[in-house]
Automatic annotation (TrEMBL):
InterPro entries: FAD-linked_oxidoreductase-like, PRODH_bac_arc, Proline_DH_dom, Proline_oxidase. This is proline dehydrogenase. Binds 1 FAD per subunit. Its EC number is 1.5.5.2. Residues 46-298 form the Proline dehydrogenase domain. Substrate binds at residues 98, 286-287. One of its GO terms (molecular function) is proline dehydrogenase activity. Pfam families: Pro_dh. Its cofactor is FAD. FAD binds at residues 133, 161, 185-187, 199, 224-225. The keyword Ribonucleoprotein does not apply.
Length: 304
């Protein structure tokens, strides 16, 4: 049953018609728990609240369904406005983005032009930009673009997904250029030909890449709500004398607040991924697919 529900939500997340319907009706049925709002002002308010509790953030203007150059340029403009808003409000937050929202599927050149504008603006403010990894079809081109940008910018990082077979080699290759990585398990539905189908294998690979990247001396963002993974990381850095300045824990907005606050009290840096915008549906569906408990939360809100 759980697998059926996961597949259903993942398929819904890719539906253009469902996305249009979601935009029409707004953040209802529990989506507001996971999405900070539809406007920059709402997202900045959410980040300010996180900062007051000792947590830092990374803001993401959501957008995955981009089919024209005009939409891609609008999305890039929102990234620039988000960086401006972070600087003007003095909140502590990075920027996260998906390159498909910048027109990667339309033209690599279009995407690169926007990436350079965004990274230039971030550098002006002394800020950092994280490239989110998307589905397997975009993995290689995303890494190629990242390597190209790293030759020009030191304020950019990328996400690596533990459920892909290729990931261990990618970690080694990216370590050679001193990459700042966010390590995740992976939330897209992928073929067993490219990704581990069993959760236990994903977990083993996740632990493996955390160790490798940390031991390489590279900045590592461990993005997980899995307490076993978090406890492993805490023990590992202590055993190997790795400074708390070399890593951080990252979690999603609206999930495991108590655990986030506990880690802050223990002296760890905790960064919360804060999504906002009108194009929230695909992100919301992946959150429902990840954890059955999220589905029951939504169902309870529907019948209140």
């Amino acid at each position: 049953m759980e697998l059926i529900m996961r597949n259903m939500f993942q398929s819904l997340g890719k539906s253009r018609s469902a996305n249009r319907l979601a935009k029409k009706y707004g953040l209802r049925f529990g989506a507001a728990r996971f999405v900070a709002g539809e406007t920059i002002a709402q997202s900045i308010a959410a980040v300010r609240s996180l900062n007051q509790s000792g947590r830092v953030a990374t803001l993401d203007h959501l957008g995955e369904f981009v089919f024209s150059e005009e939409e891609a340029l609008e999305s890039a403009a929102m990234c620039l406005q988000t960086l401006d808003a972070i600087a003007e409000s003095h909140v502590t937050s990075n920027l996260s983005l998906k390159m498909t929202s910048l027109g990667l599927d339309i033209s690599k050149e279009l995407c690169m032009q926007s990436m350079r504008r965004i990274l230039d603006r971030a550098k002006q403010y002394g800020n950092f930009v994280r490239i989110d990894m998307e589905d397997y079809a975009h993995c290689q081109v995303s890494l190629d673009i990242y390597r190209e940008l790293r030759q020009e910018y030191d304020n950019v990082g990328i996400v690596i997904q533990a459920y892909l077979y290729r990931t261990e080699q990618d970690i080694a290759d990216l370590g050679a250029i001193g990459a700042n990585l966010r390590l995740v398990k992976g939330a897209y539905k992928e073929s067993p030909s490219v990704a581990f189908p069993e959760k236990s294998d994903v977990d083993k690979n996740y632990v493996n890449i955390i160790q490798k990247h940390l031991l390489g001396g590279h900045y590592t963002a461990v993005a997980s709500h899995d307490k076993a993974i978090i406890d492993f990381t805490k023990d590992f850095v202590k055993q190997h004398g790795i400074s708390n300045d070399q890593f951080e824990f990252q979690m999603l907005y609206g999930i495991c607040d108590d655990l986030q606050n506990q880690l802050v009290k223990e002296g760890y840096r905790v960064r919360v991924y804060v999504p906002y915008g009108v194009d929230w549906f695909g992100y919301f569906m992946r959150r429902l697919a990840e954890r059955p408990a999220n589905v029951w939360f939504v169902l309870k809100n529907m019948f209140k």
